[in-house]
Amino acid sequence: MKRKSDVVIIGGGVNGCSIAYNLAKKGLDVVLFEKNYLAAGATGACGAGIRQQWSTRENALLAIQSVKIFERLNRILGQDIEFRQGGYLIAVHDSQGMEQAKKNVTMQRSLGLKVNILQPEEIPKVAAILDVNGMRVIGATFCPTDGHANPFKTTFAYAHAARNYGAEINTHTSVVGLKVAGKAIRTVVTDKGTIHTDVVVNAAGIDSKEIAKMAKVNLPLKPFRKEIMATERLAPLFEAMVISFKDGIYFSQQKEGQIVGGIPIPEETEGYKTMPTFAFLQHMSQTLTRYAPVLKHVNLLRHWTGFYDVTPDARPILGVVKDVKGFIQCNGFSGHGFMISPMVSKLLTDLIAEGKTSEVLESLSLDRFKGKVTEKELSVVG
Amino acid sequence: MKRSIVCRCEDISEEDVIQAIEEGYTDIEELRKKLRIGMGPCQGRVCIQLVARILERKTGKKISKIPLPTVRPPLVPVSLGTLACENDEKEI
Which chain A positions have a beta carbon within 8 Å of B80's beta carbon? Predict the structure, then answer.
């Protein structure tokens, strides 16, 4: 392990690894610490979706620009990340939902996104297994360029490319302390030794709150257990990810043929809980077979949990903090860290390597929570 | 070509596992996520012990020190129709 580096990244999820890649490519000396294995946290537990249909402008912008990068990522990283664009179909159930959907679509179109409002009878044309009556919909929005990628393979590909540019990636290494002097980051203490650096990126997912505490920075993050399931493999049935903000469900068919999806259990409360629940299995299977009745014949193979690191406005915390120089935040993704990682890592790399800030970084800084009312992201599922 | 199958669900051979280890995937969870071993209907009953043994042979790490992946419910495949049932009498 190195004793000195330009940047230390804490967290070996997709964001940590993609920042490591981008910084190393620019010639910076990068060291990454992951307490477990790569993609062991939220990245590895996530639903693999890539969506551009958001209610807040920042999220939509980050996602649209990320998709442009995802489209080229196989070539850039030299590995197949299994990116596919089957679209996202968002079910709309009532007039209130339709009003918000129209608002979202107007904003998304102003950013150049191709997105349409569908009538109920058009929904089975997108995914024939869907039952419009069972879904209880009055319409839907559909964006054909939304899609999926394999979160493990994306993370591994970023890590591999980062190593090729000289980044040092240490798995099974825990950060146990941060030393701050003169209001600036100086040293990172791990269970395998200490390292000197001027810049620390806090991309530790739900553990970001504990990491920030080591530098006496308080992050408004709350852990929410999220449950998700996978079925046996099936022949290709549908390409779109189907989601509903009202029911909280999302599901799609992955490249290998399994259907992966999740839904929040009705009585879920915040906390560091990791046990899967039977309530989820029942709620998920009931809702999923209501949306797509034919799936009642399909076997569920496994069910697991992960965390959303949720902020008060369900938008990430990115960039500098006022009180500690060199302490860069990359957390609070509230359930959508994978899909915006290409653009997030690019913006943070521009900030760290060149001191360049941007409108999006400014509006997503930790400072936004200080006594101000911030615009909440409404388009959240799972 | 002769292949020694390690994971029957996902059709992964010993050679596939060795290649992935040589590419740097030396953690059983990373191998699982890279190759999908243990993600099929058997949920790792057949393959995980074999993969752990190959990992021991290739890396020198004692098998007792190789942590096994988390066991995920349900232990056997169950149809969504069965799980969706409110009570025993309802037809599926």
Answer: 231, 285, 288-289, 295-300
